[in-house]
Amino acid sequence: MKTRPALAAAALAVIGLGTAACGGGVAAGAESAPAAVQKSTAEAVAAPAQAPAKPLAGKVVVIDPGHNGGNYKRPDVINKQVDVLTQKKACDTTGTATNDGYSEAAFTWDVSVRLAKLLRAEGATVKLTRDDNTGVGPCITQRAAIGNKAKADLAISIHADGAGSTSHGFHVIMPKKINGPVDPVVAKSAKLGLAVRNAVKKQTGMPYANYIGKNALDYRSDLGGLNLSTVPKVFIESGNMRNAGDAAKMKSSSWRQDLAEALASSFQTYLK
Ligand SMILES: [Zn+2]
């Protein structure tokens, strides 16, 4: 009850100020406002600054949802060769799918949208490398360029693997030095990768990959998305879509939410 009159006074004061700012005729009245009202104005202006800052305020995150739902329709576009510095590779690929047809592109898009929502709520500026899951591309070179252009504090490329059916678990891929543009962010990317690995292990129940990397950490120099990045960046291979247990998790919307939440919390850890 006590706060209501104070709020009303503050609101009136703000309205008074706004009117004065917009119309000169009222300015004289505003200048002669009683001291009590002027004090309320000061409080009203000061109040927002005292609100706790959102944890990712001022941070820029680029999320790259691997592949695209329309890639299979345009082999002429996605098979075009691009230069990833250590080799030439296809512009993009169709990605994999579960045995019953849930595509990697749909999975990466869903997790990315969930993650973007969480990060924006935490105050981050978020950019995705594609706008929907019905288009084609962009090329892996362009996916890296989007993160660079945004001067992202961090970037992540979200994928799922398509390995043998007994292979299972997730792993994080980090860049290696290649005497190229990624070299200055290799160390920061390794730090980001560790934060992502730890959070995903803790929060999703997906085990470390049993077929690649060491303790779910892998380092590669053949990925355009990493080689061409000038901002700290990692890939996550969220699980093996060809393994029944991993596929069941990835097909679950609640598991995908857990993954998005794990990634968001790992970014807070890394950016702290
Ligand atoms: Zn992929």
Q: Could you walk me through the main structural features you see in this protein, from its secondary elements to its overall organization?
A:
- GO terms for molecular function: N-acetylmuramoyl-L-alanine amidase activity.
- One of its GO terms (biological process) is peptidoglycan catabolic process.
- Pfam families: Amidase_3.
- There is one protein chain.
- The protein has 2 domains: 3-50; 60-271, Aminopeptidase, CATH 3.40.630.
- The chain contains 10 helices and 8 strands.
- It has helices at residues 3-22, 27-31, 35-50, 75-78, 104-121, 140-149, 186-204, 224-227, 244-251, 253-271; strands at residues 60-65, 81-83, 88-90, 125-128, 154-161, 171-175, 217-220, 233-240.
- The strands form 2 sheets. The chain has a 6-stranded mixed sheet with strand order 4-1-5-8-6-7, sandwiched between helices. The chain has a two-stranded antiparallel sheet with strand order 2-3.
- Helix 1 (3-22) packs across helix 3, helix 5 crosses helix 10 (253-271) and helix 7 (186-204) crosses helix 10.
- The longest helix has 20 residues, at 3-22.
- 40% of the residues are buried.
- Residues 1-39 have low confidence and may be disordered.
- Bound molecules: zinc ion.
